[in-house]
């Protein structure tokens, strides 16, 4: 596929057919994705490839904590898990939420857990009075390359993070050592429906000249 076609049609795939994703195709996806940039070219990413049903069931269970708060805040008209706006629902209200089972982690052909070694990232924003985001530059280009490569091979997936709310449990489940952090959980498989056109804001709404409040580009 043309690279621009891949970029414009790689959507979030959450429904999968029963078609398998063979190891040789997955190896090709990862082989190409590994050329993503990382801070200082330190390449501190690791991937755990999960096909075992019981392990995936455990990942689904560990995703409940994040999903429960997400749904509670969403139903309350809040932006879920937002680092700027404080949570407006009580712990009891969060605990009372019934969470639908995250079947996408079970229905996908394979689940990838992508980790990053915090011992090699450069978190330039670590001393700022806000949530750190810069260290993600050493892992999320790799994650996105996986999704782009999967699309090129006729497969799809979605970047999920609900399980990260229970990171210690996930690390224990998968034997992930410190100082690795979990950046994403990616279910991959053959999409039930392949998106051919995504809706995004036009360039004039996302880019400005010279200053944030400058004229639209």
UniProtKB/TrEMBL annotation:
<protein>
    <submittedName>
        <fullName>Nitroreductase</fullName>
    </submittedName>
</protein>
<dbReference type="InterPro" id="IPR000415">
    <property type="entry name" value="Nitroreductase-like"/>
</dbReference>
<keyword id="KW-0560">Oxidoreductase</keyword>
<dbReference type="Pfam" id="PF00881">
    <property type="entry name" value="Nitroreductase"/>
</dbReference>
<feature type="domain" description="Nitroreductase">
    <location>
        <begin position="13"/>
        <end position="190"/>
    </location>
</feature>
<dbReference type="GO" id="GO:0016491">
    <property type="term" value="F:oxidoreductase activity"/>
</dbReference>
<dbReference type="InterPro" id="IPR029479">
    <property type="entry name" value="Nitroreductase"/>
</dbReference>
<comment type="similarity">
    <text>Belongs to the nitroreductase family.</text>
</comment>
